[in-house]
């Protein structure tokens, strides 16, 4: 690489992806296009499922489904770091590892929904996040505004409306981006499968084929059923 040639920004999209669906993928493609294709979008599954439902898929299955989902999509990839680390992973620690790995120059961008933004001030070492990465807050067109809020004050000086600011610097900016999101949730997909109904067109066919082949999200664990009888 030439001296002043810096790699494309790396945009991280966290979640449980249990399973990944077209809502996630459409947002990833929208982000890629918002950066005019000058960004790498990485879907980063969390190690631990919050609810530990009987139907939750194993981390290896969630990774495999993500790999299938991004296989033919330019600019999209899967970041397995949090699953490799295992257990509870704090965003700030994940970003420290990624900063180390990607070098001081590369633009790192952590994308979060408005809900996550509203609770940011409760996150572990939250003020250090902008010392490691930029933040994109993904807002829905009719959603409530994120402008006035608790952690907004502390990060007011970090705000920008220019995507170019996130490309030309490595960290420290907060950008609100309004994107239309599809009304799809993994919860609904799991519920359909549990009832033996089809979630087709809510997620990629390749992911659905994997779910069927490995009989994921099918029905409750028999052992759990027995405990209730
Ligand atoms: P669950 O129903 O299990 O909570 P989910 O569909 O909400 O799953 P997550 O894995 O929780 O998916 O979400 C991963 C990330 O994707 C989060 O940042 C979340 O805000 C975002 N996201 C969730 N659903 C959508 C959607 N329909 N469109 C765009 N982004 C979404
Ligand atoms: Mg969710």
How many angstroms separate the termini? 64 Å
Q: If classified by CATH, what would the architecture be?
A: 3-Layer(aba) Sandwich
CATH superfamily: HUPs
* H-E string: EHEHEHHEHHEHEHEHHH
CATH names the topology as Rossmann fold
Uncertain regions spanning at least 5 consecutive residues: 221-229
Number of strands: 7
Q: What percentage of the residues does DSSP assign to strands (E)?
A: 5-15%
Radius of gyration: 18 Å
CATH top-level class = Alpha Beta
Give the helix tally.
Answer: 11
The helix fraction, in percent, is 25-40%
The secondary structure category is alpha/beta
Bound small molecules, by name, code or SMILES, are: adenosine-5'-triphosphate, magnesium ion
Biggest beta sheet summary: 7 strands, parallel
Number of domains: 1
What gross morphology would you assign?
globular
Identify the strand order in the major beta sheet.
3-2-1-4-5-7-6
Tell me about this structure:
The protein has 229 residues and is of the alpha/beta class. The protein has one domain (10-183): HUPs (Rossmann fold), CATH 3.40.50.620. The chain is built from eleven helices and seven strands.
Write the layout of secondary structure elements.
Elements: E1 10-15, H1 22-34, E2 40-45, H2 59-70, E3 76-78, H3 81-85, H4 91-102, E4 108-113, H5 114-118, H6 129-132, E5 134-139, H7 150-154, E6 159-160, H8 163-168, E7 174-178, H9 186-194, H10 205-213, H11 222-227
Parallel strand pairs: 1-2, 1-4, 2-3, 4-5, 5-7, 6-7
Helix pairs in contact: 2-10
The structure holds adenosine-5'-triphosphate and magnesium ion.
């Amino acid at each position: 690489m030439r001296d002043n040639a810096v790699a494309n920004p790396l945009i991280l999209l966290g979640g449980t992806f249990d399973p990944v669906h077209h809502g996630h993928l459409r947002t990833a493609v929208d982000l890629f296009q918002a950066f005019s294709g000058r960004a790498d979008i990485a879907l980063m599954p969390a190690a631990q499922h919050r609810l530990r439902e009987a139907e939750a898929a194993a981390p290896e299955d969630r990774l495999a489904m993500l790999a299938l989902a991004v296989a033919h999509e330019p600019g999209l990839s899967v970041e397995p770091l949090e699953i490799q680390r295992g257990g509870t992973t704090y965003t700030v620690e994940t970003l420290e590892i990624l900063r180390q790995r990607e070098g001081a120059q590369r633009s790192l961008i952590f994308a979060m929904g408005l809900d996550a933004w509203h609770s940011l001030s409760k996150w572990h070492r939250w003020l250090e996040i902008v010392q490691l990465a930029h933040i994109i807050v993904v807002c829905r067109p009719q959603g409530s505004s994120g402008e006035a809020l608790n952690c907004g004050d502390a990060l007011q000086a970090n705000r920008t409306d220019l995507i170019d600011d996130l490309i030309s610097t490595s960290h420290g900016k907060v950008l609100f981006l309004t994107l239309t999101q599809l009304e799809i949730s993994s919860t609904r997909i799991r519920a359909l499968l549990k009832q033996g109904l089809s979630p087709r067109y809510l997620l990629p066919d390749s992911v659905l084929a994997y779910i069927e082949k490995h009989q994921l999200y099918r029905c409750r664990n028999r052992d759990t059923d027995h405990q209730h009888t």
